[in-house]
Specification:
Elements: H1 9-27, H2 29-45
Length: 54
Amino acid sequence: MNTEPTPKPAEMFVQRLIDDADTMARNEPAKAMAAALGLGLVLHALPLASSSPV
C-alpha cells in the first residue's frame, strides 16, 4: 500500500525541470554553466520595486 500523496501537476513540473537541469549539467557542463551565467545576468538586470538609487 502506497501512503505517499499523489504529486500535483506543479510539483511534477518542478521535479521534471530539476531532473532535466541535472541531466544537462552532467552531460554538457559547459552549456549548463553558460545557461546559468545567462540566467544570472538576466535576473541581475531585472528592476526591483524595493530598490532605490542612493
